Amino acid sequence: MAFLTHFPVAPIHHHSSSLFTRFFLSPKPKTLLIFATLSPSHFSSTSTIIPSPSSSLETFQEISLPEETPLQIAQEKLFIPPDTEISSEKPPRILRGSNIVLSKYARDAQIVSAEFVKSSVETDACPSDGSPEFALVGRSNVGKSSLLNSIVRRKKLALTSKKPGKTQCINHFRINDSWYLVDLPGYGYASAPHELKQDWNKFTKDYFLNRSTLVSVFLLIDASIPAKKIDLEYASWLGQNQVPMTIVFTKCDKRKKKKNGGKHPEENVQDFQDLISKYFDAVPPWIMTSSLTNQGRDEILLHMSQLRNYWLNH
């Protein structure tokens, strides 16, 4: 069952007729070059966890999720999909471990079938049937293939390896014979040949800019470690080029020891958001996940479903 958090906010109305102008990010005209040291985030245990109503949402199989501390999210940091109204009289339903408000488009989220279709090294060679798609990208060793396998509940749909950099093409997986998950090459793998890294950068950026059926890029960030400059720069590039983006924080099950200077995933998640908030006017949607525990799996599927159904209807 996917879980939601009720969150009271002041009256507000949010509409949009364009998926790409208001649904995602509006970048500030700044260059992302440096880090900042931020204080740990504060959390609240007052939010209520409730199951989603069966009348409007897909029913999921029960999965075992770890106990989580509900995050305290300010109203201005919520991601409110278009065609969605929230008010103090009707508190929004927020997907657990995220800032995403659930909309009326969250339906048909369950995955029934998943199959590998093809690998491509240029955008023009990708499937041309016009189906909507979601691209997964992140720094090498962020757990991208593991997350994809977790989403579809298949251990070996996407190739995983202890050696980073195995994904070298644009890999399309057809879901429910109606939409695609796309596995893209990881970035920042130091051992890859310079020419190969240049090729990856070239065809992935061309894909982002010219793929008309791309609904959203899911940018994976390792929440078990502090923010990396390359991740911040990648997020900044996507925003500056008006590429729709959802941030997926991975490895949220890992707990670093405080005595060794480590931070909890929730703190690294908040730090990353604080850093990118200086460069973007609008808050991107984000979700905390773990491929080990399947944390965030149902939430990702619900978020994808509402993005996909809105895209199909507009």
List the helices and strands and how they pair.
Blueprint: E1 3-6, E2 12-14, E3 48-51, E4 84-86, E5 93-95, E6 114-120, E7 133-138, H1 144-152, E8 170-175, E9 179-183, H2 194-210, E10 214-222, H3 229-240, E11 245-250, H4 265-277, E12 286-288, H5 297-313
Parallel strand pairs: 7-9, 7-10, 10-11, 11-12
Antiparallel strand pairs: 1-3, 1-5, 2-4, 6-8, 8-9
What does this protein structure show overall?
With 314 residues, the protein is of the alpha/beta class. The chain has helices at 144-152, 194-210, 229-240, 265-277, 297-313; strands at residues 3-6, 12-14, 48-51, 84-86, 93-95, 114-120, 133-138, 170-175, 179-183, 214-222, 245-250, 286-288. The strands form 3 sheets. It has a 7-stranded mixed β-sheet with strand order 6-8-9-7-10-11-12, sandwiched between helices. It is globular. 42% of the residues are buried.
Counting DSSP H or I runs of 4 or more residues, the number of helices is 5
Average of per-residue pLDDT values: 75
Rg over alpha carbons: 18 Å
Question: What is the structural class?
Answer: alpha/beta
How far apart are the termini? Answer: 29 Å
Short description:
Helix content is 22%, strand content 19%. The chain is an alpha/beta fold. β8 and β9 (179-183) form a beta hairpin.
List the defining traits of the structure above.
single chain; 314 residues; alpha/beta; 7-stranded mixed beta sheet; 3-stranded antiparallel beta sheet; magnesium; metal ion binding
